[in-house]
């Protein structure tokens, strides 16, 4: 049985978790924070999530876990069969991370501490997020999923990226629902799925533990 390492408050952790649940893979969860002793053996970058495969190998980086999960568990495919469509899917995943997740992630410390973020930082974040908005508008159809009828890995990836993008948006004032037509309805449909609700409930159950961990490190 594969083991997913990390914590449920992490949006990155919830990406492979959602994919595993969608495919009906039986897996165990190992609650671990990135600074735990020995965690570098699972994830050299000391980032959550990581996965230990059935054969005892360790992998890390959420997008890599998505690829591994699809290859190791081909049931209920999450990438399109067509090679171009499959790579278009990956294109959106990469763009969502680079231009929506990572810039907004820079604002997490200010969101958690409720301290004002420097104007220069906000301007830098907004400049990158504008690219992200253009990318999603150019690629996604929202009919009803990002690339049409098939629910794909890109849907999972973007949904959890938006957790951090929304947190940052409260500081920058960028409202993605206003800027990306169809995003809000798509997100509501995703959130209504029982798997999304299970992931959200697990996240909520980890809230106290996560904030105690953050406090213990400051
Ligand atoms: N590029 C990594 C990023 C993962 C990431 O940033 N995870 C956060 C939790 S949401 C983390 O481990 N943070 C710990 C740290 O930066 O020390 C991935 O795709 O898995």
Automatic annotation (TrEMBL):
User: Which superkingdom, per the lineage?
Assistant: Bacteria
Q: Name one Pfam family in it.
A: GST_C_2
Concerning InterPro entries, the annotation shows: Glutathione-S-Trfase_C_sf, Glutathione_S-Trfase_N, GST_Omega/HSP26, Thioredoxin-like_sf
Q: Which residues form the GST N-terminal domain?
A: 1-77
Gene3D superfamilies in UniProt: 1.20.1050.10, Glutaredoxin
Q: What is this protein called?
A: Glutathione S-transferase family protein
